[in-house]
Each structure stands twice: as structure tokens, then as C-alpha cells.
Amino acid sequence: MINLYNISKIYYGCDKKAVDSLNLEVYKGEIFGFLGPNGSGKTTTVKIITGILKPDSGKVLINGYDILKDPLKAKKEIGYVPDDPEIFNKLTGFEYLRFISDIYEINNKTRQLNIEKFGGILEINDVLNMKIESYSHGMKQKLLILGALIHEPSILIMDEPIIGLDAKAIRNLKNIMRTLADQGKTVFITTHLIKMAEDICDRIAIIKGGRIIYSGTVNELKIKKDNKKDLEEIFLEMTEA
Ligand SMILES: Nc1ncnc2c1ncn2[C@@H]1O[C@H](COP(=O)(O)OP(=O)(O)OP(=O)(O)O)[C@@H](O)[C@H]1O
């Protein structure tokens, strides 16, 4: 479970808050979609949830652990896929996964089992002996996802996970997300892709200018908007207004 209480952040030298008084609860057993136009504060929020950025005010709890006061315990709960897959290019895929496993103190057997399981689903295992610099964008993205799953986190947080993936990989990732949620884990994704959110997310929040302007299910939102069928139209209407 993820809890945000009154989170605000203003970047140095900026006059406007990147995120402003955010309150959010993301439950166990759900896939939660965080939607918003460019520059609305999605990545800032993800970086604050994962402890990469410190908010100016407010509190984040990760399964009850305060990300600032109890960072190791909180971070052990999280698997994180950043929006930029440019990392550790000189390592091979295996070396990267070993490195991540060591950080999370995962034994060899668990590491191997999870590489076989999730690497198999993501169809990345054939290239794990190659250096990451030789990977395509989509292959790097798959490796990052595999790395985020290797310690069996109870909370999976992915920033724009679909970008760069082909149709089959997207379907496989959706299946992984649904399986994790059905196992009682928390899945939090940011996306620009409204259709994706509509297809897979149990609940969504829409952020605009750093403030959450809606949180709930897609169906509740449609009912609120006079039963308009097209979520994309509703989203554009809400975020452009
Ligand atoms: N390092 C930074 N320094 C200054 N301003 C920043 C920095 N990172 C983000 N911002 C600003 O904070 C606001 C929110 O940015 P953020 O990256 O969180 O948005 P986003 O919703 O993830 O955007 P996108 O969909 O384009 O990835 C924007 O106005 C952005 O210009």
C-alpha cells in the first residue's frame, strides 16, 4: 500500500510547485494508473514515492514505512522501473541482474528462478549475456522490468513502462501486472496512454499542474461525466480546461 499525505515539491529556481498538496492511497491488490499531460508532475511524484526526491512537505508511507525515516525497509518493498532506461551500459544483462540481486540480498536460487520466470515471459533471456549497450530501447526496458521484479517486491512502481515495448511485450507485461495484483501486490504505473489505463487499471488518478483533479475508477468518472463513453475525450476535456 502507498499513502501520500499532503506532498508538495518546488524545484530550485522555479516559481511554481511541480506537485502541490498531493493526497493519495494506492491499495494492495490493485493496478493504479497515474495519468496526466506532459509536465503535470507524474515523474516528480514517482521520484518522491520511491525516495529519490525529497518533498518540501508531506509524508509518504510504503506499506506503513516512512520513505524518509525508514528508507531501507520502505525501499525493500518496492520494485521500480524509471522512465529512462539508459543505465549501466557496460554491464551485461546478467551482471546488472546480479548487481540488483546483491543490493536486495536475494539468494542465487531465487534470482535464477525469477530470471527464468519473468525473463521468460518478457522474452529477454536470450540476450542476458550481451552488454546492455547493444540492447534496443525495448530490450533495455524489459531488462529494467525484470530487474524490478527480481526481489519479488510487494509494490511495483513503473514510470511509463509501455514506451518502447512491442505489442506482444505489452500484452505480457499486462499479464504480469494483473497476476501481481491478484496476488495482493500493489501496482502503480504512470502513463500517457489513456486506452492502456482504461484496459488494465482498477483505479486511476488524473494530475494536472501538480494537483490531483480526479481519483477513482474509470467507470465512476464516466458516470460523473454524463456517461460519455470515451475516456480519452473526458481526459482531454479535464486536462485542457
Ligand atoms: N529537475 C528539474 N528541475 C526543474 N524543474 C523540473 C525538474 N524536473 C521536472 N521539473 C518541472 O516540474 C514539472 C513536473 O515535471 P514532471 O517531470 O514531474 O512531469 P511529468 O508529468 O512526468 O511529465 P512527462 O509526461 O512529460 O514526463 C514540470 O513543470 C517540469 O518542467
Automatic annotation (TrEMBL):
Keyword Nucleotide-binding belongs to the record: yes
Gene3D superfamilies from the UniProt entry: P-loop containing nucleotide triphosphate hydrolases
Pfam family of the protein (one): ABC_tran
InterPro entries in the cross-refs: AAA+_ATPase, ABC_transporter-like_ATP-bd, ABC_transporter-like_CS, ABC_Transporter_VariousFunc, P-loop_NTPase
Assigned keywords, A-Z: ATP-binding, Nucleotide-binding, Transport
Domain ABC transporter: 2-234
Single GO MF descriptor: ATP hydrolysis activity
Listed PANTHER family: ABC TRANSPORTER ATP-BINDING PROTEIN ALBC-RELATED
Protein name: ABC transporter ATP-binding protein
Organism expressing this protein natively: Aceticella autotrophica
